[in-house]
Amino acid sequence: MKILIFNQKGGVGKTTTALNLGVGLAGVSNKTVTLVDLDPQTHLTAAMGLRAETLPWNVSHWLAGNRPFQTEVISERLQLIAGDCNPPLQRPLNTPVMPTTDYVVFDAPPMWTPEVAALMQLCDWVLTPMEPEFLSMQGISRLMQRMEMEQIPWSRLRLLLCRYDDRLIVHREVRARLTERFGQHLLAEVIRNNVRLAESPGYGQSIFDYAPNSAGAEDYSALVKAILTLEQNAKEQGQ
Ligand SMILES: Nc1ncnc2c1ncn2[C@@H]1O[C@H](COP(=O)(O)OP(=O)(O)OP(=O)(O)O)[C@@H](O)[C@H]1O
Ligand SMILES: [Mg+2]
Fold first, then answer.
1. Which end of the chain is more exposed for a tag (fewer CB within 10 A), N or C?
2. Domain residues for 97?
3. pLDDT tens for residues 19-36?
């Protein structure tokens, strides 16, 4: 299963979601995961405790189809294709060979790029983290229009509310409006605002290692389960 984490808006929780979903899926028995850092900011690579500039092989080599295929081995069941902080202005778009792990999770930059569009065609799901603000909804409509232009089916899209605070009326209202407007595209699970999630990248750790008893770990565990359910349902429907 290939999941592209994308929102053209910055700072909404894409990297946090890629990291914790990837690590969470690798914690499911027997499952293997590749995380791919597509973003020249290389935040995912850094959040995993690695310095992109010191690594010999990265996502640009992968996109170019360079051999031999290399990854950073994070644990027995988790590997990373590291980010490139100095990518060439135009990366070649040879269809890259997909890693053979059970899951591949892509952390995209906060903008449409040729690679984002190409990988969205190849992915099973587009998971879009978003903040519970009214203006974020406009961004989702634009994302859907763009998906239509690129002929990417909307059935792949799932929205994930991040930094959610149930005490705020505006967050509850946005959630209700999103449900009304985007229906089944909105995941029932939300990621609450949790300071542990903001702290963990500074220690190069996922939330499951840094603060396993936190609300953040609880919420990302629930997201892992939701993704497994999506996969199961898609299999049953023969997708
Ligand atoms: N649920 C949360 N609670 C508290 N802080 C969070 C939460 N999710 C993300 N953050 C923090 O918010 C900031 C932005 O998150 P993140 O880097 O995941 O966003 P992004 O969408 O990947 O940003 P960019 O578009 O720059 O790549 C980070 O400092 C992160 O630690
Ligand atoms: Mg990011």
1. C
2. 2-236
3. 999 999 999 988 999 999
